[in-house]
Amino acid sequence: MNALCSYSFVITIVAICVGRDSSEGTIEYNINTTSALYNVSRYANAIYNKEAPNDTSSHITVNLEKTPDPSHNTKRLNPLRCRTGPVPEEPYIRPCCDYYYDLFSSRWTDGNYYLTTFLERLQRWNCTQLHTECERQTFSFTKFTELVYQRFCNPNELITSCISYIRDAITRYQFLDSEYSKQSNWTLLVESLNSDMISWPDLLSPCVQIALFDRQDGGVGRYLEIAEPFVPYCGLQWNGFDYRTATEKNVSPWMAMNVGCKAGIGIGMLVMGLGSLFTIICNSIILYVFGTARTLKNSQATYKISLAVADLTIGIVVWPNMIVMQYLTFFIPRSMGSVILRPYIYEGSNYPFDKPNVTYRYSGGSFTDIFPSDYSQAMGFFSNLGIVVSVYTLMLASIDRLLAIAFPMKYSRHRAEKIAKIVCVMLWLLSCVFSAVPIFADMNLRYTVLSSILIGATGEAALILLLIGLVVPLIITLILSVLTFLSSRKHARNRRDIIASQQRNHAYERDLERRLARTLILMVGAYTFSVLAPVCCSVAGLLSTTTTWSDPKNLNLAAANAYTTSEYLSVIILSTNSIWNFFIYNWRNKAFRDSVTLLRKRINSKPGFRHALIAIRRLISMARSAKSYTTVQIRRYSVPFLSTSMSNNVATVSSEVYVATFQQRSSMGSVNVLDKECPVQNPQPE
After folding, report:
1. Spatial CA neighbour of 290 closest among 273, 308, 275
2. pLDDT tens digits, 585-613
3. What CATH number has the domain spanning 260-331+366-605?
């Protein structure tokens, strides 16, 4: 299959290089609406942005036929026909308009598709879609995009909306005289703007952004747009920056956010960091306890070890990956593409670059540049592996508990322990194969970035992967847990009869199985609670037609922003499942609790640990002392001198008491002097 894909790709490149015309064959691109978001060719993306394709992992369907090239069928259109000049040849104008309109509508969230470029191209080609867009304004989601539509559809409305703000800005920065700026028209005003001298808050103003685009040295090829839909709490962020700002100030989505958005993302990253730390510590303790304590050796311990290893993978890989993804999505500067080399006509450029002394650049900021394909595939593999192993381990442990409760006389603990070891090894091997399927399978199934913290499988077979890897085993586990609970109540009388007959040894074993079953039910309940939020979010996304970013015509911005935030929180809730098992074991299992206590005592007895603990305490003490000293200084210089006693030349503080706090800490103890009223001498006038 890989050889066939490589062969098809080579045929495509050869066809492009030799410039096949319609009599020799056509290139058919599969860009239907159902798979447009993830399966549109990377090569088509490169053609749109006029750069060489550097990612051959995208889906491309090549169909060489001995038929003429139809001029009104976008699925059979050779995109090279749209690059013959600033305006395509007459027979291909309409199909080129249809092709680029569909391409932008499905991939505008990919990072390197600009609304200004899109509308300018429709305007230059005289496409009928421009009139439709001016009436509908499909992408008018923010104030900036609203002004972009005014710029191309009704310039007079743009001038009316922004000329007052631009005049005020020019007056404040003294670009022009106040009286002269009042008499200047829009063209003179925008030409007087200098982005190097404008502060960052003003550069974030939509009027300033569109005015800088309207300069003589601005426009397409000299402008950077950042459209980021996956911002939790705040929703879609869409801004535009001129050439100097884009190349000199390293702009990023983070720089364009308000304080509330930054605080929400910062708190989220802090929670993820703590989640990773707690997950690693808790599951390391679980592995140590169940791996060394002889009293906990049973089949359930084997399943718990397997589950702890899967959770440890979440703590080592998935939690940190969420932090890295947010850093790459929000903090990494978005840059323009490479410089367009001359001559432009030789490169097949469809931009009217008519200024020889001006440097133009391709569109930049693509998600494929921010998230390399190899990184997405690796993180998707480990994320899927942890989920699959966890849910199937719970399913196998539920089967083991059901057999132990329902058939106590036939159940053998030693045989069950051996079976558990074999089954867990097979589970890990099969899970690795299952999680690697999107990496080596056809491009209809692959790991891609789904949100700012989530990498998952997408494509036509993604739903099948989700059903097999999560939904089906989770439903089976819930059914087994209910059956185990019912069976446990049914055999309660039998256990009491065994205890009454003084078969203490067997009674202890049966009681142990009952307690293990209840512990497992708690584990399944915690896992179900963690999975419930993302499952409900996914179902809502599938049922709703207004939250899909790839369908902008039906997109409801408020609903899509709410869905993005709920998806963000649900993924965090799902990942916290890797921590709950430690607390369940510590609560339900006395032997586990005793082993943890013994482990803590052993660690505390280590000299190195004691020295490290003492050093940490000293650092905390120094931090507190520095904070107290700062507080004293602030209070000292904030005392108002409201009245003066001439007899003793002492100022009396009448509004507040001068409070000095002195803390002297030592190994012998601490001395605190609090609420001491201090007379302050009146300073002599100079």
Report:
1. 308
2. 888 778 888 888 888 888 777 777 667 77
3. 1.20.1070.10
